[in-house]
Design brief:
The protein is of the alpha+beta class. About 40% of the residues lie in helices and about 20% in strands. It contains 12 helices and 17 strands. It has an 8-stranded mixed beta sheet. A 3-stranded mixed beta sheet has the order 7-13-14. It has a two-stranded antiparallel sheet with strand order 2-3. Strand 13 and strand 14 form a beta hairpin. Helix 3 runs antiparallel to helix 4 and helix 7 crosses helix 12. The model has no long low-confidence stretch (mean pLDDT about 90). The protein binds one RNA strand of 88 nucleotides through helix 3 and helix 4.
Length: about 425
RNA sequence: GGAGGGAUGGCUGAGUGGUCGAAAGCACCGGUCUUGAAAACCGGCGUAUCGAGAGGUACCCAGGGUUCGAAUCCCUGUCCCUCCGCCA
């Protein structure tokens, strides 16, 4: 959520910035609601003040009246009247406040000034590129065919068990998948200074509101048929970022850096026909996530570091990639700036997203009430939150399969993963 | 699944219908003292929101209710703790 004060005081300039994201801020509607809000709030609060003052004076008045043997009914009647007027005004105010709140919580974050204009991923801008795509002297296969040949990656059985967009992995592929997880967690923990944590995969509505998935993006989620209103997590970002919901972190504890491996569940509503083949887009996939809570003045620099931590994984795996900055139109709802890392897939002869690293500034923190105590002011102030995939496991697995395939259909295991595979050097 | 107990400010913890936005201690900030520090003493110190300001309003787990008036009484829910049972 944006700072309501800011939205109120300079809606025109915010509208201009949000236009980069393709969002139209209804300035006139906002101003109108705001004017009514002031009126209703003023009315409700002055009635409340009157009611409070009267109730306060009543203790004494009732005592005196009783001592004098007087009837106290008229005293009570006046109070009753005040209360009724008060309740009506409160209801009006409450209703309007809900309207305003709903509108405000649907406004996306303001993009950084450096975010390029553009409508979709075609307008994203390349920042850097690493590694050279390998030249194959045989015809490359994609991971689906490679998996089918060895029998170690099986989409048909998964479709029987559940439906489309699921996978069954066996033997060496299942092990490679697990090795990737261990390798990434170890690297982030030992080399990049993140604390490994393990969190619930089922979350409540408040948590999803805090990180911005709700109320706007409910259709992307799997909701449990349970009257407690639980959802499966679409990313570790949700449970991990919510660790500090309604908390105040002491300055000397910052930055807080967490790395977390979880499955992610996404309904992929609206993506029919898109990436239907293989592991690219699944309803269930695993991810190692990086999350940081930092002082506001640090977040710009920390995003660069965080992207570097994700890139380090690809470099160690010797997978060619490029890093792009998302244009306004492709930027997520809560993000002020996002870098995507795209890995080279020889079967598609192009780079595909494998990580997304974002700075949310205080947007999530305001929803979460995640704060730190600023020693300079002594006051609790909003933190900045950031996160990024470090990396998506399924997509890394298929990138390894495709980039490390050999003419006979076997797959060489990258050097850094061999210790996690018991010294095994190839699959199949 | 059964039986009890609890949830109050950054923390501990008092508070069973009006004088309570809330005692006290700790922590923290400012000052006095000191060569410096500690101790001692004095003062300050919740959050959000509206307002130019004075000040107002809301908040004692959450949501309802009773009452002229609720941290306090009633109902529902959530979470935590103890005991019994069951269980990976």
């Amino acid at each position: 959520m944006l700072d309501p004060k800011l939205v109120r005081s300079e809606p025109e300039s915010i509208a201009e910035k949000l236009a980069v994201k393709g969002f139209t801020l209804e300035v006139e509607k906002l101003k109108e609601l705001e004017a009514i809000r002031r009126q209703l709030q003023d009315k409700a609060q002055s009635l409340q003040a009157e009611r409070n003052a009267y109730a306060k004076s009543m203790g004494k008045a009732i005592g005196e009246a009783k001592a004098m043997g007087e009837d106290i009914t008229p005293l009570k009647a006046k109070g009753e009247e005040l209360k009724k007027a008060c309740v009506l005004a409160e209801e009006d105010f409450g209703e309007l406040q809900n309207q305003l709140e709903n509108y405000l919580s649907g406004i996306p974050n303001i993009p950084d000034a450096e975010v390029p204009a553009g409508n979709d991923e075609d307008d994203n801008i390349e920042i850097r590129q690493w590694g050279e795509p390998r030249q194959f002297d045989f015809e490359v296969k994609d991971h689906v065919d490679l998996g089918a040949d060895s029998g170690l990656l099986d989409f048909e059985t998964a479709a029987k068990i559940t439906g489309s967009r699921f996978a069954v992995m066996r033997g060496g592929i299942a092990r490679l998948h697990r090795a990737l997880v261990q390798f990434m967690l170890d690297t982030h923990q030992l080399e990049h200074g993140y604390e490994e944590i393990n969190v619930p995969y089922v979350v409540n509505r408040d948590s999803l509101y805090g990180t911005g998935q709700l109320p706007k993006f409910e259709e992307d989620l799997f909701k449990l048929e349970d009257d407690r209103g639980f959802y499966l997590i679409p990313t570790a970002e949700v449970p991990v970022t919510n660790i500090y919901r309604d908390e105040i972190i002491e300055a000397d504890q910052l930055p807080v850096k967490y790395t977390c491996h979880t499955p992610c569940f996404r309904s992929e509503a609206g993506s029919y026909g898109k990436d239907t083949r293989g592991m690219i887009r699944q309803h269930q996939f695993e991810k190692v996530e990086l999350v940081q809570f930092v002082k506001p003045q640090d977040s710009t620099e920390v995003l660069e570091q965080l992207v570097g931590h994700a890139e380090a994984i690809l470099q160690k795996l010797e997978l060619p990639y490029k890093t792009v900055i998302l244009c306004g139109g492709d930027l997520g709802f809560s993000s002020a700036r996002t870098y995507d890392i795209e890995v080279w897939l020889p079967s598609q002869q192009r780079y595909r997203e494998i990580s997304s690293c974002s700075n949310f500034r205080d947007f999530q923190a305001r929803r979460l009430k995640a704060r730190w105590r600023n020693p300079e002011t002594g006051k609790p102030e909003l933190l900045h939150t950031l996160n990024g995939s470090g990396l998506a496991i399924g997509r890394t697995l298929l990138a390894v399969m495709e980039n490390y395939q050999q003419a006979d259909g076997s797959i060489k295991i990258p050097d850094v993963l061999q210790p996690y595979m018991g010294g095994q050097t190839q699959i199949g």
